[in-house]
Amino acid sequence: MTGTVRKQLGALGVTIVVLSAVVGCSAARDTTAVDGALSGSPTTGLSDAGGQVVPEIPTENAPPVGKPPILRAPEVGAFAQQPAPSVPRTSAPATTSTTAVDSKAAKALVGLEAADDRALAAAALSLVGWDWRGRLPGWEIRFLPGRSGYRGSTFPDAKVIEIYVRGGESPESLAHVIAHEMGHAIDTQYMTDVQRQAWRTVRGIPAEVPWWPGSGAADYSTGAGDWAESFAYVQVHHDWFSQLGGAPDAVQTALVKRFAKA
Questions:
Q1: Whether the model pTM is above 0.90
Q2: Which one of 55, 92, 176, 260 is at 20 to 30 Å from 16 when CA atoms are compared?
């Protein structure tokens, strides 16, 4: 890291600290645990997030930092077609009781019929070592059938992450999508403007590049998307789609862990 960058980070009060990750666990669908460790009676119609509507943000104007839009992990390659809806599904998938002590802890909900898809979701979630359950209280991660156009969506106002599962993909690839959306949740839940500026500095992201994409738009060419891709890469070390630079180096990786408290 250059002396100039060190001075800039020092002025922003940023300290590079590497912390250890805590392995999270998953929740389940019906009476079968997603990861084989949870069980209980299913409940449906979760009203805390399922029925809320996320307001639209005009796509031509990126919102100011601190007011995020809907954030997406778009399809790349042959599957890129039509976008998914701009609000989370109003009918939440089933869940079971969990072993979490805190009733406000994040939940993983599975709305997948095929056993293979449920197994894929469980395997992918187990690859993400960040303590999402403890660090995202009140959030839901919903595993839903595959949709054209997008692989995942984050709805900050509703505290909902949707992961669209299609058969045939690897657990590592799906884990990258999960971690990418978690990166958006970290950004909207915890990161400050000072931290976002620090990320711009270490990544060399020009000031004219917007942080947030327009509502429902792809984010791989924005600061938020670059951050989310970097968090996903640090977690899974699989896939890389940011259009603003290569995968994070050692200094940038340390900063990801510092900001995510990973």
A1: no
A2: 176
